[in-house]
Amino acid sequence: MTFLSLDGVDGAGKSTQIRLLVDWLTRQGRDVVSCRDPGGTPTGDEIRRLLLDPEMRISLRSEMLLYMASRAQLVTEVIQPALDRGSVVVCDRYLLSTLVYQGHAGGLDVEDIRAVGAFATTGLMPDWTGVIDLAPETAAQRRDAPADRIEQRDRSYHEKVRRGFQAEVEQHADRMSLFDGRQAAEEIHQAIIVEVQRVLDRTRRP
Ligand SMILES: Nc1ncnc2c1ncn2[C@@H]1O[C@H](COP(=O)(O)OP(=O)(O)OP(=O)(O)O)[C@@H](O)[C@H]1O
Ligand SMILES: Cc1cn([C@H]2C[C@H](O)[C@@H](COP(=O)(O)O)O2)c(=O)[nH]c1=O
């Protein structure tokens, strides 16, 4: 019944914060479903593998549509059923990432992506999105795995990704918040739960 997502540049600390948030929500007695986008379903996991494979040649429009296809499957199979059961859903990335990576940074029209996104998700949008802001160089230094197809893009692309997230949060401050990824993980977590508590207070408990 409450849909939350976390987003940000690669390596900003999303998975770390999702783990902390899911533990906190569970301790609050909430039924929580966590998922990741792209992926989170057998079909989505296959699409994710293609999208992140550095050997794959994928045009920008195909790339955008593949992210949408994975998300459409995730909404149908996981997110909407969980919300219908009264669970809190916490998703690692969502449509905002497509607006930013394929739109602001990639160059596709952001409003076109919103329209395709509305179709793919049946209009289902998070009640709230937290974005962890961090310089891409700092985030890349934290990475311990080889760079995937998107992470391999140049510095200017990842700078545009960061600025795209900042711009989207500024434009949608009613449903998005920006967090300083340079802070310690526990500090960021405390700031996130203040915002999440507000969202929970205005969404009905089953
Ligand atoms: N606030 C923090 N300060 C310093 N290091 C952190 C912080 N948060 C996470 N890390 C570390 O940075 C690395 C990346 O964190 P994490 O996997 O949570 O990021 P992510 O945004 O989910 O990455 P990806 O985009 O690659 O999925 C990990 O080694 C993690 O332990
Ligand atoms: C949802 C979404 C993601 N991306 C990019 C962002 C990352 O580089 C990868 C996903 O990897 P992660 O480990 O799950 O962060 O894909 C994108 O370009 N567009 C999107 O819509």
Automatic annotation (TrEMBL):
It catalyses: dTMP + ATP = dTDP + ADP. It holds the Pfam family Thymidylate_kin. GO terms for cellular component: cytosol. GO terms for biological process: dTDP biosynthetic process; dTTP biosynthetic process; dUDP biosynthetic process. Keywords: ATP-binding, Kinase, Nucleotide biosynthesis, Nucleotide-binding, Transferase. Its EC number is 2.7.4.9. ATP binds at residues 8-15. InterPro entries: P-loop_NTPase (IPR027417), Thymidylate_kin-like_dom (IPR039430), Thymidylate_kin_CS (IPR018095), Thymidylate_kinase (IPR018094). Residues 6-192 form the Thymidylate kinase-like domain. The keyword Kinase applies. GO terms for molecular function: ATP binding; dTMP kinase activity. It is an enzyme of class 2 (transferase). HAMAP family: Thymidylate_kinase. Phosphorylation of dTMP to form dTDP in both de novo and salvage pathways of dTTP synthesis. Belongs to the thymidylate kinase family. This is Thymidylate kinase. It comes from Kolteria novifilia. The lineage of its organism: Bacteria, Pseudomonadati, Planctomycetota, Planctomycetia, Kolteriales. The gene is tmk.
